[in-house]
Amino acid sequence: xxxxxxxxxxxxxxxxxxxxxxxxxxxxxxxxxxxxxxxxxxxxxxxxxxxxxxxxxxxxxxxxxxxxxxxxxxxxxxxxxxxxxxxxxxxxxxxxxxxxxxxxxxxxxxxxxxxxxxxxxxxxxxxxxxxxxxxxxxxxxxxxxxxxxxxxxxxxxxxxxxxxxxxxxxxxxxxxxxxxxxxxxxxxxxxxxxxxxxxxxxxxxxxxxxxxxxxxxxxxxxxxxxxxxxxxxxxxxxxxxxxxxxxxxxxxxxxxxxxxxxxxxxxxxxxxxxxxxxxxxxxxxxxxxxxxxxxxxxxxxxxxxxxxxxxxxxxxxxxxxxxxxxxxxxxxxxxxxxxxxxxxxxxxxxxxxxxxxxxxxxxxxxxxxxxxxxxxxxxxxxxxxxxxxxxxxxxxxxxxxxxxxxxxxxxxxxxxxxxxxxxxxxxxxxxxxxxxxxxxxxxxxxxxxxxxxxxxxxxxxxxxxxxxxxxxxxxxxxxxxxxxxxxxxxxxxxxxxxxxxxxxxxxxxxxxxxxxxxxxxxxxxxxxxxxxxxxxxxxxxxxxxxxxxxxxxxxxxxxxxxxxxxxxxxxxxxxxxxxxxxxxxxxxxxxxxxxxxxxxxxxxxxxxxxxxxxxxxxxxxxxxxxxxxxxxxxxxxxxxxxxxxxxxxxxxxxxxxxxxxxxxxxxxxxxxxxxxxxxxxxxxxxxxxxxxxxxxxxxxxxxxxxxxxxxxxx
Length: 714
Known about the structure:
By secondary structure, the protein is α+β, with helices and mostly antiparallel strands. Helix content is 18%, strand content 25%. α3 (94-105) links the parallel β3 and β4.
């Protein structure tokens, strides 16, 4: 589908139509001599200071054009400053645009009766595509949402491929073949930006006559009577009236800001409504794409898979994917030359710890995008450090299986990467200050009021449609499914999809801040009397260990039940066929065991610095001389006997699984759950993504090394 035309200029502002009325005394206009002059209408430009900066103009003013994207698609802009609408859509994200289009298609509202208000100048919200990047202006970067996963996002995939007719290409392959996840491509099969989806929706709305109001950031709502007309006040001073319904397609933090400033009948928003709206929290998300004129990773046969290299406030984290960035190649064989973007970071957490290094380099404004260039000293500093981390990881810290895939010496890898840092990078930061977003995505903190949170203002004919209060958080799928629910319940519009949408079981996400701990006490495995079935797909993990589910959510391992689909190593998934729990250390903590069916995709069960999710002090790197410990599990019991501490120079069994109990420093910081009375974690173990060795000596019954085991990876 052709994209809307891009603007021809960078001038920002709102056009307003003002009538010039004759102020002269009627007698001074005898016979209507000045009637023509007194009724003239002129158009003036009303400057508006607000909204995020124009990323394209900002970049072009500072950096070479090769480093800058082309302008975003535009749509015909309404010039009204006091519009009256039958239905007002606030926020031009995917869920809201889809819902608006369905209402027009089902003749619940006319095109002209629908107004779309947006705080920025583009559509898509947290689906955000930069296009026209690089020297040939042929590369795109998705700093927001970017893919579908048909198994868990069937509505999104169907909307793109069938309803909108947009082509998709494979983003990530199944381990056993076939495609697992998809992203949007152009007619030539090249990545085209995931924002093509909301842009196509807005194009259909515009063609149907819907009115478009960019740079209209909603400040408050006012209703005199329940389900009566709603007056909308915007930051630019404009006001609008929604006669029938308001659709709020905005995330939690902007929504709360609006609700606090609003005046609604019957006592306004109640305490229970606020309680419901506070049942989710935002996750801080950072993405970094580095542009290389020579896509050296292709020369190292690294076209699929992940990279993981721990960082902190002084050393940049690496947590990226080789197959994500847009790369284009010319020529064949030895003449083949490729250039493009390497996704070096895709990190997210609720506390923002993973964003520590990047916060200092992010431009301080509401815009999510920061272009980092080698043409200024600060940018050059960042790019040199980032490149050095890339070299350090690939030359000295790659996992063994990746080294085997590359098949080159350290010298050859160093030569392939080169010493020249990339000329520029694109940093995407979705934090609490990001305009219209307030974060990357959301997670439930309390499911008690989930129903109220999904319909917080329905009694006022104000409908919240977003991923924050949905069944599929973190994906546009959540907003689309919630839109279909509102359409059916409030407007009698049935779902258009030729399938039943699967129900996703909801979980509570991280709700505590990790506490400082002390007094490590090592214990070996094997509490007597607890049997584990004879199967290589078993392994004990401490209660509280986060398990990454195949749908992208996370559960504590003790909450995983039979039938759940969990993510396994690589791109695989496995169905839980048995879930066991038993107490250790006098019942103060629990170990949990999962069994996956034989059809689970291949992947290793791993223990690493980050996987168990234990307090931050447990993530200290082990001594370089510490022995390596693997993690067998075949037909053995999980035990809890004390083990002597490991000391440098002493050997350890290469086939022993070990746990470390850690007493939390302050009893007052412990949660109410008995599982938190003592935090347990597996000792360092060899994994595909970690080369950390064990800091502790293990003892107890020797075990056979087992085959590849299946589990989740962070």
